[in-house]
Amino acid sequence: MPLEVAQAIALPDEVANIARLAKSLFSKETVPTTLAAIAVVVSVWAAFISRKSMKASERSAAAAEIQAGHAASQAEAAEIQARAAMDQANSASSEAGTAHHQTEISALEAARQRIDARMPRVMTVIFKKEDLAGLSENLGDLPIPLPAPTQGKRVRLDHWSTDGSVNDTPHWAWDAYFVSHGLLHNYGNEPVRVVRNGVQFYAGVHPATGEELREPMTDHHGVRILHPGQTTLFQVVASKQVDDWVNVLKSGEKEQEVCEAYLWFYPADSEEPECGVKLVTSGLPLERHSSDEVYAIFKPGSYFDLNITHIRKYPDSTQEILLRLKGDQEDVAWFMIKKEQDRAIRDYVRNRARDEVVDEDSPSPMSGD
Low complexity bias: where (predicted)? Predict the structure, then answer.
């Protein structure tokens, strides 16, 4: 709108002054200066705004840094708490494991004491080993107890020969054996049932007191009954057929052949607890001269030994105790089968590792040692 028109309209003084100022600022002569001034003002304003924004950003960054520091402190504190909680959990777990272990030990000790309280009280003593090994065409034809062997000379044995035989039995089928004699004494207050394997009872004279001893009575299952205070005699005959002894010789084993016999003891009215002795005879009554193509030579003066190992069967886990207390014989039987399988596996692994160590220590055939 032209200024003259604005003036003609009679605008208020303030508006008229603004109109005159605008006209003077945007005249042809002042437009460049005016625009430059506006640009400077805008630039200064923008700088001012930018500086304020920068300060606001700096304050925000500082605040964020402070917050981050607080968060880091909180995280560190949380980590410390977590570690403390973990340590407490580990300590509680260790204490629980120790308590469980102690409880199991206490249960096993209590079970052991209960078993010991009911264990048959039987003493086993070996009082005599015959000086000479024996040789017989048929060991079953000899009386019990066996008479002391009197054959003091070596005997040449040929596989199919029947020299010296009464019933034309070839030498390979004869029996070679060692004999030991012992005592059983029940020093408890209850009768004891005795199950034997490889042991023979007989009546005779006590080697120390001269008292006449009788055989223990036999029940209808063939189990012997040893009464309180009773003593009885037995013999252990470690025998093999000559052919079996020769197989030992052929195997080239350096260790002496072992023959085992057992005596198992039970309370009169129960199958448990079970205890016993293992009687191990070690010796070799034959030798072989391959250069003469001799089947075998019987050596009556062969040295042998007999060792007694006492056996007491205790539970080794609370699971076994629980099964036995429940009285389910089938569950107990399956548990014991698994236990024996695990033991056999452990023995196999242990023996295999031992054999591997022996093989590594043995000199190589190519080493020239």
Answer: 79-89
For the chain, the domains span 1-118, 127-314, 315-356
Are 264 and 230 a contacting pair, CB within 8 Å?
no
Query: Which residue in the block uniquely carries the two structure tokens 């293992």?
Result: 278
Please calculate the CA angle 92-98-101 and round it to the nearest 5 degrees: 140
Which H or E run includes 329?
helix 329-361
Contact 281, 305 (CB under 8 A): yes
Tokens describing residue 58: 């700096």
Per-residue pLDDT reduced to its tens digit, 303-326: 899 999 999 887 777 777 677 767
Query: Residues near 318 by Cβ (< 8 Å), separated by ≥ 6?
Result: 104, 107, 108
If you write DSSP's letter for every residue of 100-136 in order, what string do you get? HHHHHHHHHHHHHHHHHHHS--EEEEEEEE-SS-EEE
Q: How many Å apart are CA 194 and CA 218, to the nearest integer?
A: 9
Answering whether pTM is above 0.70, one says: no
Q: Which amino acid, 44? A: V
Percent of the chain with pLDDT over 70: 83
Do 112 and 275 meet the contact criterion of CB atoms below 8 Å apart?
A: no
What is the Cα–Cα distance from 331 to 339, expressed in whole angstroms? 12
Intervals of the chain under pLDDT 50: 3, 6, 364-369
**Residues composing the chain:** 369
**Cβ–Cβ contacts within 10 Å for residue 317, how many?**
13
Helices 318-326 and 329-361: angle between axes, nearest 10 degrees: 150
pLDDT in tens, 64-74: 888 888 888 88
Chain-centroid distance, C-alpha 195: 31
Contact indicator for 284, 257 with CB cutoff of 8 Å: yes
